[in-house]
Sequence to fold (574 residues):
Amino acid sequence: MNEYPATVNVSPPHGHSPMYVMHKFFGRKQERLINHYIRTFTQDEGEIVLDPFCGSGVTLGETLRLKRKAIGVDINPISVFVTRNTLTFISGKKILEEFKAIENDLKNEISNLYKTTCSKCGKKVTAICFSWQDSNLYDKRYFCSQDGKRVEKTDFKDIEQYNGIRSYFENEFNNLNESSTYWFPKNPLYYSNGRAFLKKERYNHIHELFTKRNIASLALLLHRINQISPQDLRSSFLFAFSSMVHLASKMTPVRPTRPFSSSWIQPSYWYCPHNMESNVWELFERAIIGKQGLLKAKRDLNRKIQNIKKVNTFSELETSPNPTYFLINTDITRLTQIPENSVDYVITDPPYGHSIQYGELLYLWGSWLNVVNDYNETFQDEIIINHRQDKSISEYESLLKLALNKIYLTLKPDKFCTITFHSPNLTIRNLLYRSAIQTGFIFDELVFHAPARASAKSLLQPAGSQQGDFFFHFKKPLKKLKQVFQPITGEELEKWIVEIVKDIIVKEENPLPYNQIQNKLDPFLYEKLYKSKLLLNFNPKEVKKTLKKYIGIEFSLFENPDGKSKNDILWGLV
Ligand SMILES: C[S@@+](CC[C@H](N)C(=O)[O-])C[C@H]1O[C@@H](n2cnc3c(N)ncnc32)[C@H](O)[C@@H]1O
Ligand SMILES: [Zn+2]
Fold:
């Protein structure tokens, strides 16, 4: 049987560090892995590393940390905003001074909106949050110096207070322009073609995701932050603002285990029947001086990378000392700023299929920061599968191919391109592999990495909720190769899959849950395809379906002694 593809020795995965956790992002990569591969595939300081789908900028951070030069490209202005602010150093002193000034101006005004009384002793207190059950103010959660942290039913006074705030602000809201104290975004959760966002449920506009009290508080805060100068300080306060804005929304469920905080747990504009209404001042304070706040993030950045320089042209990048980066807000297929054969290494994580709609999800932040004017104009070239935008899987494939072609051109010959991919779906992974081969890349290796904070439980995740990441390593040949590949037939593929899975089970000496089989299968499959000069030209059915045909013939199913659900079934040999 084949040997396992070379495994890499990377220290065990762990959570993200303070400079990255400060702002939520979707599909953020583990910095250790990125760091490992940059060290593996570049030799010297000063080499140029490109991430054409840079998202929140983890690859840029790790590139700079290793004293290489970084180029980041992303179509989404919010990705670029997050990346830039993650890499901008601001001194702790300046952050604290500005925070104190804002506190002076606004803390009381905002906190007053959350005033209530302790149900036990009758003292005035400030709610840390309220909760809402559908459209009813349900309970209040606060700290009383006498009675400690409490969760109590709201009373008529709380409801009256809220209604007062609502009518006051509804009047104010009627005559708003962009410089008003109470400006807030009203962007529709619809594409310009009139269809609803793929990931929207009940709400129709950004402002409906918030209670009136939280809209008012956020508006006051934003208005004040917009007056900060200099610009980089203002920008990092906007960054802190946007890092908490979703936490002030109604998309934050009440959780019995953590009654005083919540988070935006679903990658959608979902309707949460019992939701939190968190005190905006408390959230903002945490976003600046809390465990995952701006101050910690900047200290972490300063510990890791000093004197980062940002440039605006490729020639400046070439001539500047390390660490320097060049960040470009464009569709990668239209990139013109980077000459051909100029990049030493590409490492990237393209969007995979339809599950995370980056454009529309990041739009929550984009609307508050007022950086997206026309949705379709900004996102028409986003590489994604989304039937409401008429982006089918074949449209996705052709866009991905255009992107890979651009990447291929910018890369120097004989250099590597690592593409990490999180898709649980063989069709999508294959589509990426196939596009890369058709672009002219040489296949080097595919490695699977288990997820950060891998627990015994997560290793037994049911199929479909795939955890961890695949890293495809490709290489640009010295001279354009004539790689001729024949299509593999369905029968052949089926035979291969069964053979490889049998090998995997033999090698493990124990039956395995399906998702582990799937993670081990892919590296063998692509190696075998590549060596045999075959391409999978059709969209294969899921591996599990194939394997199921062979239950009783090649495979037996076993109950997992520690398993809790039917998905914990183990696959062994007959
Ligand atoms: C999976 S995310 C990258 C996340 C990143 N690995 C991180 O650690 O934060 C994919 C990114 O590709 C971007 N993208 C989608 N279509 C693009 C295009 N045509 N050109 C450039 N970027 C694009 C999205 O905006 C998104 O930020
Ligand atoms: Zn009390």
User: Anything to note?
Assistant: The first helix runs from residue 18 to 21. The two ends are 19 Å apart (CA to CA). Residues 1-9, 454-466 have pLDDT under 50 and may be disordered. Residues 491-574 form one domain.
